[in-house]
Design goal:
Layout (H helix, E strand, L loop, with lengths): L3 E3 L12 H4 L3 H7 L4 E5 L5 E13 L26 E6 L3 E7 L7 E8 L2 E2 L1 H8 L16 E4 L9 E3 L9 H5 L3 E3 L1
Antiparallel strand pairs: 1-3, 2-3, 2-8, 3-6, 3-10, 4-5, 5-6, 6-7, 9-10
C-alpha cells in the first residue's frame, strides 16, 4: 500500500482498531501495529492513510527511556491513560512525535510510531501527515481526526533491535530489543 489521500466524505472506519488491541502492554502491541494503517484527517478535509513500518515500545516508570520514568507530570499525565489515546510531543523543539498509549490505566506506556511507508523517521512522518500538538490526547478508538485501521495485511520478516536515540537510558533499557520494523 502506498500512501493514500482521499476526500473526507469517503472515510471508512469499518476496520478501525478497537480497544482490545490497545489494552495490550506496549512490548506486545508494538510489533502488532506493524502493517496497520495510520489515518489522519488533515485540516483541509483530506484523509491521509499510510501503512506503519516501524515502532518502538516504552514501558512504565521502570523503563528509563520512557517519559514517565521520573513520575507523573503535566507532560506525562496522558501516559497514565488507558490504551488508545494519542500522545504527541515536541522533540528537541523541532519535530512532533506520535505515540499510541497502550495497556491498562495507571501503568504509563506507549508505542512510538517511527515509520510509515515512504517516510522513515518519526518527525518526517508526522510532518507529512500533518500531525501536531492539536492531535495530543485524541482517542484513536473514536476520533474522526486520527485513527488506525487493519486491512488484514501482516508483514513478513519482522526484525527487532534496540531503540534509537535513548542514550540517556540505563544500559539495560538502551539494549532491550523493543524496536520493531520490516
Amino acid at each position: 500500500m502506498h500512501t493514500l489521500v482521499c476526500s473526507a466524505d469517503i472515510i471508512s472506519t469499518m476496520n478501525r482498531i478497537d480497544n482490545s488491541l490497545y489494552n495490550l502492554n506496549s512490548p506486545e502491541l508494538a510489533p502488532l501495529l506493524l502493517g496497520k494503517i495510520l489515518c489522519v484527517k488533515r485540516d483541509d478535509g483530506e484523509v491521509v492513510k499510510a501503512r506503519i513500518t516501524e515502532t518502538e515500545a516504552y514501558f512504565g516508570e521502570e523503563d528509563t527511556a520512557c517519559h514517565a520514568h521520573k513520575g507523573r507530570t503535566n507532560r506525562t499525565e496522558i501516559l497514565y491513560s488507558a490504551g488508545g489515546r494519542v500522545y504527541v510531543y515536541l522533540c528537541y523543539g523541532v519535530h512532533y512525535l506520535m505515540n499510541i498509549i497502550s495497556g491498562p490505566m495507571e501503568h504509563p506506556q506507549g508505542v512510538l510510531i517511527r515509520g510509515v511507508e515512504g517516510f522513515n523517521g518519526p518527525g518526517k512522518l508526522t510532518k507529512y501527515l500533518g500531525i501536531n500538538k492539536s492531535h495530543n490526547n485524541l482517542d484513536a478508538t473514536t476520533s474522526d481526526i486520527i485513527w488506525l485501521e487493519d486491512d488484514g495485511f501482516v508483514p513478513e520478516n519482522i526484525k527487532t533491535s534496540p531503540r534509537i536515540g535513548i542514550d540517556y537510558a540505563t544500559e539495560e533499557y538502551r539494549n532491550i530489543h523493543w524496536r520493531f520494523y520490516y
